[in-house]
Amino acid sequence: YIAKVKTAAPASIVNEATIIMMQEKGDAKTLQTGSNGFTCLVSSDGTPLCADANGMEWRKAIGEKTTPPDKTGFIYMMAGDTGTSNHDPYATDKSHWVQTGPHVMVVGKAAREMASVYPRTMDPDPSQAYVMYPGTPYEHLMLPVD
User: Fold this and answer.
1) Are the C-beta atoms of residues 106 and 144 closer than 8 Å to each other?
2) Which residue among 9, 120, 128, 131 is least packed, with the fewest CB closer than 10 Å?
3) For residue 82, what pLDDT band results from cuts at 50, 70 and 90?
4) What is the CA radius of gyration of the chain?
5) pLDDT on residue 24
6) Whole-angstrom Cα distance, residue 3 to residue 6?
7) CB-neighbour burial class of residue 51 (10 A; exposed 0-12, middle 13-18, buried 19+)
8) Dihedral sign (CA 99, 110, 62, 30)
């Protein structure tokens, strides 16, 4: 698990981050206590990620279907993701499916402010920067990296 988590972000981030493992009842078990404000985990779909505190709040809002915080957050997903439907974070079909390789995400306030200059199509080119979930409260910037 920790080896997989360590693929989420640069070593300089992961080595100083809190690493958690989600448990069956929804609580988190801390495997490593960090000091840099980032939390790293493997999400339920198997994607490793590291998020700052605001990014974690934003993820929690999606999970709870609540209004996301009006704060800027940052999330590393340097191992890529397993894909999702780009039009709705809760879609269970594969319409407008997009799978992005290694990337970082800007979420929250700054993402909404910056989104107008990035592609907002439902079927984006995941090798280029784009807005995910355009037009929803959860829209955010996907920024592919090599």
Assistant:
1) no
2) 128
3) very high
4) 14
5) 87
6) 5
7) buried
8) positive
Closest to 56 measured CA to CA, from 71, 46, 34 = 71
pLDDT given for residue 42 in this prediction: 97
Residue 28: name the closest of 20, 40, 38 by CA: 20
pTM of the model: 0.95
- Report d(CA 124, CA 40) in Å as an integer: 27
Q: Among 8-12, 68-72, 112-116, 123-127, where is mean pLDDT lowest?
A: 112-116
The residue with tokens 């979930």 is 133
Amino acid at 80: G
**Which band of pLDDT confidence, cut at 50, 70 and 90, is reported for residue 72?**
very high
Spatial separation of the C-alpha atoms in residues 146 and 144, rounded to whole Å: 7
CA distance 102 to 28: 25
Token pair, residue 116, equals 């107008």
Task: Give kind and range of the element (H or E) at residue 32.
Answer: strand 28-32
Backbone angles phi, psi at 74, to 5 degrees: -135, 135
Does 146 score more than 90 pLDDT?
A: no
Handedness of CA 85, 98, 112, 43 (dihedral sign): positive
For residue 72, what is the DSSP state? E
